[in-house]
Amino acid sequence: MAQQVDGAAMPLDTEKVGIKGYLAFFLTIIFFSGVFSGSEGWWRVFDFTVLNGSFGHVTGTQTFRGAGGTGAKDGFLFALELAPSVILSLGIIAITDGLGGLRAAAQLLPPLRNPVLGSPGICALALSAR
User: Fold this and answer.
1) Pairwise CA distance, residues 128 & 122, whole Å
2) Which segments cross the bilayer (predicted)?
């Protein structure tokens, strides 16, 4: 029993974050921020909303869901409409994690977050967890 308590009290091993992790974190922040959404040129591809795109329009309605729908059918089509953007964002976050960007976020964000939100350090795990 004493061995378990001693093992639990030891701090977790933190991996050193390289320049690749910090660069991945910085580029992900820029990608989701919308900085390049209004720009003209090839760098528009670095924006989430541009890559996500939009659906075409059904004649006489605003979206492919139509107008005035209610109930489960409309809710299902709304969820279907959200699926591509969720899949794209989770893929980008998985790539960022693979490059070490989330470890960089875990190191960089707590000192910035604590004065602004006043949250304790233990909340960093919940806000920047994988």
Assistant:
1) 11
2) 21-39, 75-95
| Chain segment 75-95, per-residue pLDDT in tens | 777 788 888 889 989 999 999
Report the alpha-carbon distance of residue 106 to residue 110 in Å, rounded: 7
Going by the DSSP 8-state scheme, the letter that residue 27 receives in this structure is: H
Cα dihedral 75, 80, 81, 82 sign: positive
Cβ neighbors of 121 (< 8 A, separation 6 or more) are: 110, 114
- Sorted by where each begins, the domain ranges of the chain are 17-51+71-127
Q: List the structure tokens of 40.
A: 């003209």
- In one-letter notation, the amino acid at residue 19 is I
Q: Read off φ and ψ for residue 88, nearest 5 degrees.
A: -65, -45
